[in-house]
Amino acid sequence: MPIIHHRAPLKCLVAVRGHPFDRTAFDAMFQAMDGITATMVDQPAAARLMNPEGMRGFDALVLYDMPGLDFEAPENAPLYLEPDEALKSGFRALLEQGTGVVALHHALAGWPTWGEYHEWLGGQFHYHPGTSRGQRVTDSGYCHDVTHSIDVVADHPVTAGLPASFTLTDELYLGQVYGDSVTPLLRSSATFTRDHFWSAENAVRGEMYSREGWDHPPGSNLVGWTKQALGSRLVYLQPGDGPSAYDSPDYRRLVENAIRWVA
Q: Of 122, 159, 191, 263, whose CA is between 20 and 30 Å from 2?
């Protein structure tokens, strides 16, 4: 009688919190993935697991979190918070040992003062004017509910089974993309210029949908990439704001492929 080998499911730790999201719809996306189990852990508890010991038994880390920002601060919210040394050394050790990472959407805004973190991710979303790779930059832009087509620009395991182009309605960012250090996977048909986005700093000051006094240079249309982060494979996917993305079979395939590839 033949022996049937059942592969153990891939286990991923999914770090969440810091940005509002539809938890039920987000979780449903992972529940639909065959052979993958996802354990959702809220920040700040998730940060305590982002080291080789804490991730023992997990095959991959998914970042859907936005730590290091205090939106309740009485002035200049969000206040930028420093990651502690234990997190920084633990996260570096995790990458050095080759634990794969999939970062989604607003993860690009997390830990705003930790430059190395953003080098590993491949870019940064800024809530306030600041620095990026030693250069002064203005705050980033956002725009909700943009219907755009996404072109697959690489034949890669992360894009396997996807059509050459697919459509999503989602939030887009106009921020910093370190295009020289990433392998492009996905490009958007949207126009990444100031006139199509709103200022993040104006929004946190209570002026939603404003670009008053804000001038951002044209940005990259790259919305998905891979890169080597020390010893680890890392994938960043800019889409993923809400159920319109989570429920898309193309987005689900992307996230699932990404988890399998980094693991």
A: 263
User: What is the per-residue pLDDT for 8?
Assistant: 84
Strand-pairing partners, residue 146, are 170
Q: Which two tokens stand for residue 87?
A: 């997190």
* Residue 141 · residue 174 · CB < 8 Å: yes
Q: Answer yes or no: are the C-beta atoms of 250 and 168 closer than 8 Å.
A: yes
List average pLDDT for each run of 10 residues in the chain, which is 263 residues long: 69 96 97 96 97 97 98 93 97 98 98 98 98 96 98 98 98 98 98 98 96 97 98 98 97 98 97
Burial of 112 (0-12, 13-18, 19+ CB in 10 A): buried
Q: What CA–CA distance (Å, rounded) separates 167 from 97?
A: 36
Q: Is residue 195 packed enough to be buried (19+ CB in 10 Å), middle (13-18) or exposed (0-12)?
A: exposed
In order of their start, the domains of the chain are 10-262 (3.40.50.880)
Q: What H or E segment, with its residue span, contains residue 252?
A: helix 249-262
Distance (Å, whole) CA 26 – CA 243: 7
Q: Among candidates 102, 48, 47, which has minimal Cα distance to 229?
A: 102
d(CA 52, CA 36): 20
Residue 64: strand, helix, or coil:
strand
pLDDT for res 219:
98
| Coil vs helix vs strand at 254 | helix
**End-to-end CA gap in the chain:** 32
